[in-house]
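Thread amino acids onto this structure.
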């Protein structure tokens, strides 16, 4: 009974969110326009005390900073193809980042801004020399139309790009974190994929099991943009990495 009530409550929140404009600070939706070196956002679930929420968001920001500096993505996924179509069999991807980078981040990063909206708390961190303009603090309504990058990858010879998608989870923070993780995975997949296939054919049908394996170290990543499809409740994150690294 309790689980059913929680499910209904979640559906109600999702329905209400689609009726009202969703707003975020510009630095959250468009971090690529800040002009600062190495900005990073930390997320957390909001707690009863605002100060505690900001502290936890900042702590997550230190971890995300370490992931952006260097993340090792490894693992793979498998597909089964028959005459009836292609079916996903599952995936097992892992991420590893330098914990020492996270622990030393407080000495280099400063909190530039923060906001709390419902169950989401977020903090913007940047290098001490970064100056945040008032325009970047202004709250913006999430555009109703999808940005071009959600449908077509940016054409830029200097960067590798990856777009991550995530559904709407009960806690919004989980959706944004998952979308970022998927964007990192997609950059890794675009750089190096080893494909192994096993085929079986008979006079009546053909089948193939295809496996994709990846093992790539990503460095100097940057979250460029975020977008939320309020109607379909899908979260998007655009991440890039310089080709020179």
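Threaded sequence (245 positions):
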């Amino acid at each position: 009974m309790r689980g059913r009530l929680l499910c209904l409550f979640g559906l109600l929140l999702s329905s209400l969110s689609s009726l009202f404009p969703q707003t975020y600070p510009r630095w959250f939706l468009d971090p690529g326009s800040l002009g600062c070196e190495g900005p990073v956002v930390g997320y957390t679930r909001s707690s009863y005390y605002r100060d505690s929420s900001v502290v936890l968001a900042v702590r997550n920001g230190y971890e995300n900073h370490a992931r952006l500096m260097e993340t090792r993505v490894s693992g793979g996924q498998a597909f089964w193809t028959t005459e009836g179509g292609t079916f996903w069999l599952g995936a097992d991807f892992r991420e590893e980042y330098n914990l020492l980078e996270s622990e030393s981040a407080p000495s280099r990063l400063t909190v530039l801004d923060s906001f709390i909206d419902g169950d989401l708390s977020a903090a913007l961190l940047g290098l001490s020399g970064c100056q945040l303009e008032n325009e970047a603090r202004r709250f913006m309504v999430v555009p109703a139309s999808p940005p071009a990058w959600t449908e077509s990858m940016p054409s830029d010879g200097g960067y590798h790009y990856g777009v991550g998608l995530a559904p709407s989870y009960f806690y919004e923070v989980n959706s944004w974190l998952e979308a970022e993780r998927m964007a990192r995975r997609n950059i890794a997949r675009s750089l190096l994929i080893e494909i192994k296939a096993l085929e079986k054919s008979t006079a009546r049908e053909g089948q193939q099991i295809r496996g994709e394996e990846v093992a790539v170290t990503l460095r100097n990543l940057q979250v460029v943009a975020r977008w939320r499809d309020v109607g379909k409740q899908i979260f998007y994150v655009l991440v890039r990495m310089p080709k020179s690294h």
